[in-house]
Amino acid sequence: MNLKLNRPICFFDIEATGINIGKDRIIEISILKIFPNEKKEDKTWLVYPEMPIPPQSTAIHGIKDEDVIDKLPFKYVANSIFRMIENTDLAGYNSNRFDIPILAEEMLRAGISFDIKKHKTIDVQVIFHKMEPRTLSAAYKYYCKKELKNAHSSKSDVFATYEILLSQIDKYKNLKDDVKSLEKFSHQINIADLAGFIKIDENGNEIFNFGKYKGKKVYEIFKKDLNYYGWIQNSDFPLYTKKIFTIIKLKKLNKKI
User: Fold this and answer.
1) Helix or strand (DSSP H, E) at 29
2) How many C-beta atoms lie closer than 10 Å to residue 16's C-beta?
3) Residue at which a domain ends, from 185, 214, 243
4) 257 lies in a domain?
5) What pLDDT was estimated at residue 148?
6) How far, in Å, are 8, 67, 147, 191 from residue 23 at the CA level?
7) Cα(161)–Cα(140) distance, rounded to whole angstroms?
8) What is the reported pLDDT for 254?
9) Euclidean distance between the first and final Cα of the chain, in Å?
């Protein structure tokens, strides 16, 4: 079984210093790019995170400070990564909640205007959890009928994720094999940013998903309390979330972006 592709799709996996989208940094990223003609190419970058790697993170992925001390910071490899994923769709395991948000943060820090709306995204974990709740290793064993070696190595995980998705398409006859359908199926909630601070209601309005204005329309709050926008921009929210708040503010208040 193969994916129906109208353009390339990049399966990717990230290992990081932790799981805080706004503060933690990428240590390793692997990308497996699949072309419509079934050609494949892959690339792995080991990155200096410009901060110590916590022992609890090393315990998961095995990467220590000394493994990355001579590697380039993300900002020096960002353009290469961006070129590889440009004009492609994106897929990963738990990617909608972690890999894509942290990649967006790193891209914005590097001065690259990452826009998730230019990519369709498939989260293989969401499909798996809707069908058969398990971990990545269990998913690989369940769908691919073999043990996953070197789990939490980004290269091993990204190839496993690709194999799992193909097996899911083959197993579930109601699961369509085109990227648009898989993107829709693998999304759990309708959000405007990547970290889930801004939800979209049934009428297409952006609403706050946190704080004292939770459930309120963003543009209506900004009209009467623009200081709240300033507080957001000066607080510890992810950069991509701040970017979306700015876009909403400028569009809804009839100003040029």
Assistant:
1) strand 26-34
2) 26
3) 185
4) no
5) 85
6) 31, 21, 34, 21
7) 8
8) 61
9) 44
- Evaluate whether residue 241 is within a structural domain: yes
Long-range pairs, 136-140, Cβ under 8 A, ≥24:
136/93, 136/160, 136/161, 136/164, 139/93, 139/164, 140/164
Strands 206-208 and 40-46, sheet pairing: unpaired
What is the pTM for the complete model shown? Answer: 0.69
Is 32 inside a domain boundary? yes
Q: How many domains does the chain fold into?
A: 2
What pLDDT, in 10s, does the model give residues 224-254? Answer: 898 999 999 999 899 999 999 999 988 866 6
Give how far the C-alpha of residue 172 lies from the chain's centroid of Cα atoms, to the nearest Å. 24
Residue 256 confidence (pLDDT): 46
Q: What is the mean pLDDT of the chain?
A: 90
Helix and strand numbers (H, E) in the chain are 11, 7
Same domain, 132 and 248: no
The mean per-residue pLDDT over the stretch 198-224 comes to 91
The pLDDT assigned to 143 comes to 87
Shared domain for 64 and 142, answered yes or no, is yes
Tokens of 180: 């648009």
Could you tell me if 179 and 83 lie in one domain? yes
| Both tokens assigned to 145 | 């009928």
pLDDT at 168 over 70: yes
**pLDDT range class, residue 74, cuts 50, 70, 90:** very high
For residue 105, what are its two tokens? 């943060």
User: What is the extent of the structural domain holding 37?
Assistant: 9-185
Report which of 1, 33, 32, 27 is spatially closest to residue 14, judged by C-alpha positions. Answer: 27
- Assign residue 7 a region (left: φ > 0; alpha: ψ between -120 and 50; beta: otherwise): beta
